[in-house]
Amino acid sequence: MSLESRIAALEAKSDICDLKARYARICDDGYDGDAIAELFIEGGSWASNTYPEVSGRLAIARFMREIGRDVFPWAVHLLSNPRVDVALEDGTAVGRWDLLQIATQDQDSVLALGRYEDRLELVDGDWRFTAVRVDFSYVGTLAEGWGRGSSGFLGSV
């Protein structure tokens, strides 16, 4: 691989990590559905092992507003261990992140653990999500904890 190709791949990975950080920040600032949806291609999708898949920017925007209003009125997404594979010749990529989310739900302090796997596409020089999927392995309250027998474990991820 040429030096130029290697630099282009590194820049793409950096841009994709920045996109994911914007996604997390928008979620943490109140789940602005329209702002989140703009990070996706028009026909993009968002899916999880705990919610049904939603497709298209309008559906993603509506879903995210509902999450912010009805599920997690306050949340902090902490993303770690980024792994990004870029196919520059195709203008596509796959990104993976581990998630630690602290949030409030009803009157409870909630902890969620999961893994994101995102599909991305280069559109007019900017990376956009084509599909975001988060699989949660644990979602539970701090009061219940995550010790043996906790109901928060959703299976291995």
From TrEMBL:
InterPro entries: NTF2-like_dom_sf, SnoaL-like. Transmembrane segments: none annotated. Gene3D superfamilies: 3.10.450.50. Residues 9-132 form the SnoaL-like domain. It comes from the Bacteria. Pfam families: SnoaL_4. SUPFAM superfamilies: NTF2-like. This is Nuclear transport factor 2 family protein. It comes from Microbacterium psychrotolerans.
